[in-house]
Amino acid sequence: MTGSYLLGGIEGGGTKFVCAVGTGPDDIQAEIRFPTTTPEETLGRAIEFFSQQEGITALGVVCFGPLDPNPRSKKYGEILSTPKPGWSGVNIVRIVESAFHLPIGFDTDVNGAALGEYCWGNGVDLDVFIYLTIGTGIGGGVCVGGKVLHGLLHPEMGHLPLPHDKKIDPFEGICPFHKDCFEGLASGVAMEKRWGMPAKNLPLDHPAWELEAQYIAHAMTSYIYTLSPQRIILGGGVGQRPDILKLVQQKTHACLNNYINSPIVQDHMETYIVAPGLGNMSGVAGALALAQQALKK
Q: Positive or negative, the Cα torsion across 181, 187, 189, 195?
């Protein structure tokens, strides 16, 4: 969908950065992945990678937030008050732009992933859908009519308040701003702190997964009532586990309790809450799509 122009894409996650060059997810001509460390080291590696590529016409950058995606704002391109140490106040767009002097598209990592899924994945031909990622952190992007939703800044779907029965789950939560919001209770970091090991090491019969799926289902229910999406795409390391996805589908169906009068939700939850069509390429694909948009401006 991006055409034949050679594009560069940066997906800046809280754990790792992915940099790619190509025309779309089916045509990646060069790629590198490396851990997210300090801004200087991490962005330096990204700049070094793209400096070695030839023919790039535009760059798209998607990044963890919160951030300012409004081109009319004085803080456009800046990461705002993030729990990621050392990254608050870093203006990624300014740094990348000064290095390459190319058109640059910029948005959140989850908005980028939503855009990638709209162009090539499980959001194609949908008017309204949500991309939600559950990994190190939790975030979500909303795509409406082929455009991602912004507003004041951008949706902060990971900081949704959730029912928290402290008799069942005495864990306080890890969000530095809200303690037991969705991210504070159900992110990968929260799971590791609660259970003493990374989520990927927890066996399927561990009670962690029932609790995790219940929290995700509560959040899904709120998003469904509020936004009435035609589909929810569930990504991230936790979200893409097929066994957990099925559990989330079942628990979300139970939480809705047949209130939403649609056969898609009532009878076909397996095609309503789905894994990303692009797998772990959604974010970087969205970055390439943003680069194409920047080229057209």
A: positive
Structure tokens at 292: 């194409």
Residue 64's contacts (CB-CB under 8 Å, 6 or more residues apart) are 12, 13, 14, 79, 82, 84, 87, 108, 109, 137, 139
Note the pLDDT of residue 82.
86
Residue 81's pLDDT is 87
User: Do 130 and 227 form a contact (C-beta atoms < 8 A)?
Assistant: yes
* Mean pLDDT of successive 10-residue stretches along the chain, which has 297 residues: 80 94 96 97 98 97 94 95 91 97 96 97 97 93 95 90 97 95 96 95 94 98 98 88 91 96 95 96 97 91
122-275 to CATH, choices 3.20.20.80, 3.20.20.140, 3.40.190.10, 3.30.420.40: 3.30.420.40
Domain locations along the chain: 7-108+280-296, 122-275
Q: 152: which 2 tokens?
A: 């004041």
Q: Largest Cα–Cα distance of the chain, in whole Å?
A: 59
Q: Which residues contact 289 (CB under 8 A, 6 or more apart)?
A: 1, 2, 60, 105, 112, 115, 116, 119
By the 8 A CB rule, do 53 and 8 touch? Answer: yes
> Minimal CA–CA distance to 48: which of 96, 119, 118, 102?
96
CATH code for 7-108+280-296? 3.30.420.40
Predicted local confidence at residue 1, as pLDDT: 52
